[in-house]
Design a protein that fits this description.
single chain; alpha+beta; 5-stranded mixed beta sheet; 4-stranded antiparallel beta sheet; 5 helices; 11 strands; about 20% helix; globular; disordered N terminus
């Protein structure tokens, strides 16, 4: 917005004066809108469309047109990894599994928690297949493959949140290992499913950003 500012001097006698400023009517209004760029899109095996966008230096992923993750808000993903990985940072040959990569913030937080010697192996596979082939392998498992047990964006992920999927994850743990699930919403039924699998459960409500944004739910479970 462009406005002209003109001084107005008013005398008060004996050599004193005061300067006032006033704004004239705007001569021009400039509006700059930063465009939203659609960078890439793909369609999953069940027909779900995933699209990557960029806007004002931030990236986001939309699922069937609805924003599901953003580089501006990842506090809950950071916390998911920190709570699983920090307790095992001094464990010899510790191994963790992250199901779902997203924008990479869970992985980044896991590496920061595990220390500079941590290494990454990227597997392009259904995480359920990885769990089936990994009996007693992991000290920690973090599953952030969807919005949770209820708000699924891909129907194929439902099995991970059912009793059979929970038991599959449990068999992939080493003794004392922990499973963590990220969810967009609270879910008492899913919490009970974890308990039905003979797991002790801790539920944490946490915001998407450190000071703002929607509330997410983290489920932490381990065998007694």
């Amino acid at each position: 917005m462009s406005r002209e500012v003109r001084p107005l001097r008013k005398s008060f006698g004996r050599g004193y004066s005061r300067t006032r400023h006033y704004l004239s009517s705007p001569s021009a209004i400039l509006i700059r809108v930063k465009r939203v760029e659609r960078l890439d899109t793909t369609t999953t095996s069940d027909g779900t469309e995933l699209t990557l966008y960029r806007h004002d230096g931030a990236y986001s992923i939309r699922v069937d047109g609805v924003e599901r993750m953003s580089t501006r808000r990842h506090h809950s993903e950071d916390t998911l990894a920190e709570r699983v990985c920090s307790p095992i940072q001094n464990t010899a040959n510790a191994r963790v599994l992250i199901g779902g990569l997203g924008l990479g913030f869970t992985l980044k937080a896991a590496l920061n928690s595990l220390g500079p010697d941590a290494r990454v192996e990227l597997l392009r596979d259904d995480v359920a297949n990885v769990l089936k082939k990994s009996r007693g392998v992991f000290d920690g498992i973090m599953l952030d493959v969807d919005n949770g047990a209820e708000s699924l964006t891909m129907s194929g992920n439902a099995q991970l949140y059912r009793y059979v999927g929970i038991k599959l994850a449990v068999t992939a743990l080493r003794p004392g290992g922990r499973i963590a699930y990220w969810s967009a919403n609270e879910n008492v039924q899913f919490e009970q499913s974890l308990r039905d699998a003979a797991l002790s459960v801790e539920v944490l409500r946490i915001r998407a950003h450190t000071t703002s944004g929607p509330w997410h739910t983290l489920f932490f479970a381990r065998a007694d």
